[in-house]
Amino acid sequence: MKFRVERDVLSEAVAWVVRGLSNRPPVPVLAGVLLTADEEGTLTLSAYDYEVSATVTVEADVAVGGQVLVLGRLLADIARNLPARPVEVSTDGAKVQLTCGSSRFALIQMPVSDYPQLPTQAEASGSMAGDTFTQAVHQVSIAADRGDTLPILTGVRVEIDGEKVTLLATDRYRLAMRELTWNPGSSDASHVCLIPARTLSETAKALGAAASVNVSFGDAQRSDGLVGFEAGQRRTTTRLLDGEYPKVTSIFPSSVDTVAVVDTQALIEAVRRVALVAERNTPVRLRFTDGQLAIEAGTGDDAQGSEAVEASLTGPEVEIAFNPQFLLDGLGVLNAPFARLAFTQPSRPAVLSGQAEIDGESDESYRYVLMPVRFAG
């Protein structure tokens, strides 16, 4: 095998495929990146750990086609630090020689025959705009559980019903739901799956710059437990989580007693400042009165902080407390000038959504439900 490729092209391609590689793979070959050079003028890089696969195809000047397997993270580190010159790669016995300007490296070949077969990408089930995909995943994945107590809650539930897509995640303390439209391959498209939130989030960040992202849910009859994403020459698959997701949409209040609308950025900054005195697991208290929201943290002999911001209030005054980081997480992904907080009573979940104007309509496409925290006094 012998080929030449631009340094930046190689560096970006390797970084893309190794992003999901485990630091402690179950078998040594899974730490590798598979390089396949085609004399038609392409270089394909692939990585796979039985859970997530990533493949990217780039242009290259291929003199001799072939296939080699080398340590992925080592190749990524080398490619990232090479001088801005074309990179020449060739096999030499048991080594892979890499030359860039006066830089020379010899990498050990790993046994290609031991490398598992990459999962095949099913035909696209539909597509959505890259920026919309990234935003929606970011808005929802913040609410997924990061622990291992209940693995099913570490996923994002994706439901497809025709042109409608609903993303849902919860860690039992908050719940995030985003509804959007996509371009399905079939008008009667119907899918429900549970995708690991961390993998979905990384995929959205990596592919979101593309104008359009194709999504493959696979053949229902084949039931291979995979979902695939593709944008341009980048393709990735991930294994789905098994299990029945809890019916958490019942958490959404059926009625609302009080609605407050606050400038989103002003609220974020105020909560951040007041939360500086809130020790671990200590809530911030929000007291909504006509025209004003008072934010407080700390009691008694502890450090204390307070601040007030303007607020538009409809309904009875309310006092409620939240985990400050959970509140900031939701506010940070609203992508709206104004935050709308809807309450029933201080002991019941509150619903956060966005508004374009202080006296306008709420955008219900994204809703963030936050459980209140009990506080003394």
From TrEMBL:
Is the Iron keyword given for this protein?
no
Which superkingdom heads the taxonomic lineage of this protein's source? Bacteria
Q: Which UniProt keywords apply?
A: Cytoplasm, DNA replication, DNA-binding, DNA-directed DNA polymerase, Nucleotidyltransferase, Transferase
**Which locations, inside or outside the cell, does it occupy?**
Cytoplasm
Q: Where is the DNA polymerase III beta sliding clamp central domain?
A: 129-247
Q: What positions does the domain DNA polymerase III beta sliding clamp C-terminal occupy?
A: 250-374
Q: Which PANTHER family match?
A: BETA SLIDING CLAMP, DNA POLYMERASE III SUBUNIT BETA
- The protein's name: Beta sliding clamp
Organism field: Ornithinimicrobium pekingense
From the broadest rank down, the organism's phylogenetic lineage runs: Bacteria, Bacillati, Actinomycetota, Actinomycetes, Micrococcales
